[in-house]
Design goal:
This protein has 220 residues and is mainly alpha-helical. It has a single domain, classed as Rhopdopsin 7-helix transmembrane proteins (Up-down Bundle), CATH 1.20.1070. It is built from eight helices and no strands.
């Protein structure tokens, strides 16, 4: 079953983590939009959309795992286990979210290249459907490129916010490796889930700093 992973004892906690993912990505999206209104930098507007899509993805994942673990309806359980529609929706929204982050971060303005990237991500969605490992391999590749770009940005700017963004995406990238390592030991899945949460929290903290600094400058 693609949606249920990790040790059996962790499944209930996994649902809780997914709920936290829904909330934290929604908050990151909200803070990104506030940062856009405050700074008028378009990248924050796209960040808001990307993390909004991510929040939808995690909500689908959370709802589906709850339905599967509680066995509320045998018909619903049969559909979710038989066709993995929920995983397909989760993969689609996640891929589109990271595609938008990729386009925004690399400042790709050419519409043809943007279309190519979105098409590629859609293709990866289809390929990764019902294949847990392929999905995380694709996610690792995308996040690795984003992390490399954020590292270059940090070396160029040498400020703390840029460092936080790099750390955040570095943790998200490493989390994908632990998701892949789950095939050897289920405890790696637990490490991945926690590491991913820490990555999102670091990004959330960075956006709070931007908003606080922006408000202080306006008051000054």
């Amino acid at each position: 079953m693609v949606l249920l992973n990790g040790p059996y004892w962790f499944m209930s906690l996994d649902s809780l983590f997914n709920l936290v993912y829904v909330l934290i990505t929604l908050l990151i999206g909200g803070l990104s939009y506030k940062a856009y209104k405050l700074t008028e930098e378009r990248k924050y507007k796209y960040f808001a959309v990307a993390f909004g899509l991510m929040s939808i993805a995690f909500f689908v994942y959370f709802t589906s795992t709850i339905l599967l673990t509680t066995h509320i309806s045998s018909n619903v359980t049969s559909i979710l286990t038989g066709f993995d529609y929920a995983f397909l929706v989760y993969v689609f929204f996640t891929m589109m979210a990271y595609a938008l982050l990729f386009i925004t971060t690399l400042k790709i303005e050419d519409h043809k290249i943007r279309t190519l990237i979105l098409t590629l991500m859609f293709t990866l969605t289809v390929v990764a459907y019902q294949y847990y490992l392929k999905f995380h391999i694709a996610m690792f590749a995308v996040l690795f490129l984003l992390t490399y770009n954020f590292y270059d940005n940090y070396l160029e700017k040498k400020n703390f916010n840029a460092k936080l963004v790099f750390i955040s995406f570095f943790l998200l990238t490493c989390a994908q490796l632990f998701y892949l390592a789950e095939i050897y030991n289920g405890l790696f899945y637990v490490v991945a889930v926690i590491m991913q949460l820490v990555g999102f929290l670091v990004l959330f903290y960075m956006l709070l700093r931007i908003l606080n600094n922006g408000r202080e400058k306006r008051k000054a």
